[in-house]
Each structure stands twice: as structure tokens, then as C-alpha cells.
Amino acid sequence: MIATQSNGTEKTIKLPVRTISISVAEVLEGGTKAEFYSDLRKTLDVSVQVANIAVTACLKQDNLTEKYPPKIYTYPDVSKLLPGLTTVASSIAREVEGTYKADRYQMKIGRRSIRSYRSMPFPLLSNKSHRAFVLKAEPEYITARFKLLSGNWLVRLAGGSNYRDQIATLKRAIADLSYGDSHISIVKNKAVLGVSCRIPVRTPGNLSGYIDVVTQPASPGSDTLLAITTPRSDYPARINCPEVRQWASESTRRFQAMRENRKSGVDRRRIREGMNALEAKMTARKRTLCHTIAANVVGQAIRKRVATINLDFTVKSFVKSFPWYDLTQKIKDKASLAGITVVDQTKTLQEPDLSKPHVYFKYAASTHRIKIGMTARDDGSRHGSETDSSEELIILAIDNQPKAKVRDKEKSYQSQFKKYQVQLATATEWFDADPVLLMLRERGWLGNAGNLSQIAQVMDVQ
Fold first, then answer.
1. Helix then strand then coil, % of the chain, to nearest 5
2. Residue 131: Cβ within 10 Å count
3. Distance CA 395, CA 250 (A)
4. pLDDT tens digits for range 87-144
5. Taking the complete model, does pTM exceed 0.70, yes or no?
6. How far is the C-alpha of 345 from the C-alpha of 432, rounded, in Å?
7. Are the C-beta atoms of residues 325 and 286 closer than 8 Å to each other?
8. What pLDDT digit, counting tens, does each position of 277-324 carry?
9. How many Å apart are CA 157 and CA 350, to the nearest integer?
10. Which of 449, 421, 425 is nearest to 361 (CA)?
11. What is the C-alpha R_g of the chain?
């Protein structure tokens, strides 16, 4: 976008990019609707093949023992799969390469395996050098022309009141050619176009002041995730999300049952597929919730006509594994479209140093019990999940020991508090918290893992 300044000079303004999702309503040229979906499914299958071959090529060209990856170039390995659509193959290859590099550190330390693609949207390129995707605004609808694996297609996009905002945005993008590289996929048996558009920022008007958006610590009987406060106001607006804890409890219970079934060796492949499906379901739920919360926060900022939103997501104890970063980005994206500035005041709490073998003391706030256990792993992956607790445990202290002696030290601590042991059916590592806390305080170990701020959210650390 070119804007003329008061001194007569021109300045280029980069508008925010947003993806407009809209479904295909009718096939106008290229064949029947059945033939279109058949071609689309074949094309998406080839996209998945291209993505997985590109991942394999990334792994072959890389050496995970090195600190930094070499220059990775997977196009020669995938170009033959899409004859006549080499630019599309290059686009998929570049996306896979970027994702691989983003995942590389987690793979290097053993926290995740190489990504396997089960779906990959088909790119529809529309840029200065290659315009294979064309939108056209007709008097009563919008058409899209693009090429799939078997030929060219002209389709009519959905309309009506359900797509009123999307249609208005697309018409503006068509008028000034501000749409770019997009994609097509199948969602719930419907072909859906994801059109990338540059959206003009709303004129701020007379905006002033600010609102504070702060996360709330976990507390019994409270379902408040965020509190929104304004100056000179004693009554903050609260965003309650009880469903988040219900989802966490449900996923923990079901994952635990699946892990136990896998250990028993019963149909391990089917159970793994079920675990993947459950994880995808929970991820989709949280992604939708983040959109809703972000719209709520920005909507309140617009109604109050404030110029700034101050975010403070330092306290993250409301629920385990909530996508705080995703929520922050969605608030920033929606606020930028409204001309509102977002200031991220979140402080990064120091994470525990778990790089060496150690005995750990973990606290369960709901039962006021402490778990004394050990790990001889060097990557700290032992603390990724708990198989005998439904809540997130807090590391109160660690005692680093040589790998050969860490198990003996664990047994020593457990013998020391033997009379305070809590008899459970599946675990013998749990003890009443008070005597263990007394020992940790006397030795000055409380918070020695570097997470004193986290501990302070559930107990007095003085």
C-alpha cells in the first residue's frame, strides 16, 4: 500500500496478512463436482507424499550431532512428483524445510521424533512471478480459477449471510490485487480455500488509555483464566474458562488409560492412532478457544476505546499445557487490525536445571503430598508427564548425584521419611508434605531448581 505523507513523499505501508477461509459452492468449468473432488483428493495425496519425501531428504542432508544445520535443499527430491507444477513442489519443499529447522532442536535433544505429514494443503500460488490462482468478483458471487494435478478448474465460492465478512474482504482484495499465495484443502468433506489477503488497518480514531490483561493463578473454586482491568476501576472483567480444566482432566484420564493399554501390548498401532486423534482434537479445541478469548479481549478494548493492551501472562498455573504463546499472537493479530497497540509484559520464569541426573521432590497442591523420585536421564525428559498423578506437579527441589549413585540416594530419602509414606495402590513414592518441607527448608533447598516464582504460587516460600 502506498500512502502520501504531509511533505508530499510516498511511503510504503505493510498491511497485516490474514487468511480468509471460504468453501467451494459450485464447479463452473473443468468437469463435474465428483470429478473435481476426485482430482482434489489425488492432488492432496501427492502433496502429502511430497511433504514426507522432503522430510526424509532433510534428515538425510542433516547431521543432528552438529549444533547448526547445513544448507538443506530438497527440491530435486520432490520435483518429479508434480510434473508441470514444479513451483508448487518448491513451495511445499520450502515449507517443510522451515518446519524441520524449527523442530530440529527438539529432535536433537530427543523430545520429539521427526514430523510425519498426514495432510498437506495444496498451494495456490499468486505472486509477482507466478500467478496460477486468480479470483474474480462477479456481480453476485466470487469465482476462483486454479490448476490441480489433472487440469484447470473454475469454481464459485460460497456466499450468503454466513460469509458476508469474508466476501467483503475478498472483494476489496480483488479490487487492489492484495491477495497472494493461498491454499486449498478438504475440511469435513468440503473443499475450502484459504486465501491470504492484506487487510487494511482500521482507523484508530480518538483512542487513549490502556487495559491490563493478567492471568490468574490456579485456586480452588475459581475458573477465571484472565482478568481485564482498567484504571480507576475496582471491578475487573473476568474471562472464565471452566471447560479448559475439563478438557485437561479428560485428556489426562484417556491418555493414561491408553498408555496402560499400550504397555500391555494390546493392539499398539490402533492405540497409537487413537492417541494421535485425541491430541489433534484437544489441540483444535484450544485453538478455537484462543480465537474466542482473543476476540473477547480485543472487543472489550474497542468498546472502551483504549489505545494499548498490556498483556501479563507470567503466571501460567491455571492449567497444564495451555497454548499461551498462541493466545498472545492471536490477541496481537486482532488488535493490529483494530489499530490498537499490544505491549507484552510477560516475564520469563527461570526453568529448572534438569540437565544432570538428580533426585527430585515434587509437590501436589491438591493433596498436600510430595513425591520423591529420581531420574538418570541427561535430557530431563522424565518430567514431561506424570503417570501416577492427574495434576501438574511442581518441582520443589532437586539433589544432583552421579548417575551411578542417584538410585541409592533416592532410596535413602525414601527410607528417611518411611513413616510418613502414603500407601497408594500403584505408587510408593508419595509422602506427607510437612516433614519433607521442613527438611528442604532447613537445608535451604526450596526452589534450588530455579523455579522459586512457580513455587510461590502455591505456598509460602519464606
1. 40, 25, 40
2. 11
3. 24
4. 889 999 999 999 999 888 888 888 778 888 999 999 999 887 778 899 999 988 999 9
5. no
6. 37
7. no
8. 888 888 888 899 999 999 999 999 988 888 899 998 877 777 767 888
9. 50
10. 449
11. 27
